Amino acid sequence: MVEMLGVLTVMGLLGVVGVMGLRSALDSAKANKLIQALSRRATVLAADKSFGTNFTDNTSFGQDSDYTITCTDIENTNLFSCTVQSVAQEVCEKVKKSDWKTPTTMLPTTCGTTNDMVFTFSKDLDGSGTLCSEETPCPNPNATCTNGVCVEPLPQSCDTNAENPCGDECQTCNPSTLLCENACTRKQYLESTGTQYIDLNYIPKMNTGVKGRVVFTDTTPPDQYLIGSRDNTGNTRFWFGCSGSSSDITKRFIRGNVGALQVSTIPVIANKVSDFSFNYNGDRKTYWDEQVYTQSNAVTFTPTRSWYLFCPNDRGDAQPALRAHTKLYYLQIYEGTELVRDYIPVLDFNNTPAMYDKVEKKLYHNKGTGDFLTD
C-alpha cells in the first residue's frame, strides 16, 4: 500500500510538471505567433510609411494571432504603433523577454494579469527613437511623449519667396527641400580672416544705433573696417573700424567728404573681447569697453547703399584691402529704441557658418571668398 501511494505521488508530481511544461510551451507558442504577426504588420506598414502610401487596413492581415491587433499611424512622424488586446501575463512576459529588437518601445513595462500591449515602431524598423516618460520628458520641448517615445514634429513645408515662412526663431526655409529646418546651431562667434563679408541688406537711417561685441584678431595695418558704406557717388561715407599704426590703434568714424573724422584714440588690443556701441549721425559718441569717446565734429550723411559687415560697401563693391580680421559675437541695429536687426553667429542646415537675424528670421551668408570660422 505504501509503495502504491509513493508511485501515485510521483505520477501526480510528474503530471503537474507536465501540465506546467505544456502551459509554458503553449505560452511560448502564443508569444512567438504574436511576434510573427506583429513583424508581418510592421514590415508592411513601414513600407507604407516610407513610400507615403495609404496605411494598410488591419483587416487585410486576417486572423494570424490569438489576439486582436490594431495598428495605427502616428501622423506627421516617422512612427506607427500596434495595440494587442488582453494579452495574458505569461505571454506578455515571454514577449518582453524575447530578443526582438524591432519595436522602439513595448508597453507596459511590467506585465499584469491581462495587458493591452502597445508596440511602437519607427519606419526604419531599427528600434531607434528617444524614450520618454512622465519622469523623463523629451529633450526637445516641442516633442510629445507618445507610447513612451518622443515624437518629433516633422518640418513644415515652406515657400522661399514668402516673408518669414517658418515663423519660429531659428527656423528657416531650406531651398533644397522647401522645408522649415533648424538653421540656428548657435555658435559663440563668427570669425572673418580678411576675405569674407556679409551684405546686411540694411541702409542706416538718421536715428540708427549699433551695439555689438567684437575681437580684432589682427590690429596691424592696413585699415580694417567692421561695418560701413558709401553713397552712390562714392564721395560721402560712414565706416567704423580699426585704423592706425600697430602702436596707435584708433577707432574711426568717416562721414562726409572731408576725410577722416577721427574720435579720440581708443586702445584696441589684439584678441581682446570688447563691447561697443555708437549712434550713426547721433551724439558723436562711441562707447568702447564702457569708456566714452567723442568725435570732434559731425557731418550729416544720408546713405544710399546697405551696410556691409566685416568691410565697407564701397560703391557696391567690398573693398578687399579694408576687410576686417575679427571675431564677431553679435551685432544689433536699433532705430531709436526699437531693435530692428539682431544678428547672431550660427551654423545653417548645411553646417555653413552664417549670421542669423532673429528679428527678420533670415540667414545672411558670406558674399566673399573662403569660409568664416567659428568656435
Short description:
This protein is an alpha+beta fold and 375 residues long. It has two helices and 27 strands. The chain has two domains: 53-129, no CATH class; 187-374, Jelly Rolls, CATH 2.60.120.200.
Series of H and E elements: HEEHEEEEEEEEEEEEEEEEEEEEEEEEE
Mean pLDDT: 81
Largest sheet: 11 strands, antiparallel
What's the number of domains?
2
- List low-confidence stretches: 253-260
CATH topology label of the largest domain: Jelly Rolls
Which structural class matches the secondary elements? alpha+beta
Question: What would you note in describing this structure?
Answer:
This protein is of the alpha+beta class and 375 residues long. The protein folds into 2 domains: 53-129, no CATH class; 187-374, Jelly Rolls (Sandwich), CATH 2.60.120.200. It is 16% helix and 36% strand. The protein has 2 helices and 27 strands. Strands 9, 10, 12, 17, 18, 19, 23, 24, 25, 26 and 27 form an 11-stranded antiparallel β-sheet that branches. The longest helix is centred in the N-terminal third of the chain and has 50 residues, at 2-51. The model is unreliable at 253-260 (pLDDT under 50).
List the helices and strands and how they pair.
Blueprint: H1 2-51, E1 69-73, E2 79-88, H2 89-97, E3 105-107, E4 114-122, E5 144-146, E6 149-151, E7 171-174, E8 179-182, E9 185-186, E10 190-193, E11 198-199, E12 208-216, E13 224-230, E14 237-245, E15 248-255, E16 261-262, E17 274-279, E18 285-288, E19 291-294, E20 308-309, E21 313-314, E22 317-318, E23 325-335, E24 338-347, E25 353-357, E26 362-364, E27 373-374
Antiparallel strand pairs: 1-2, 2-4, 3-4, 5-6, 7-8, 9-24, 10-23, 10-27, 11-20, 12-17, 12-23, 13-14, 13-20, 14-15, 15-16, 17-18, 18-19, 21-22, 23-24, 24-25, 25-26
Helix pairs in contact: 1-2
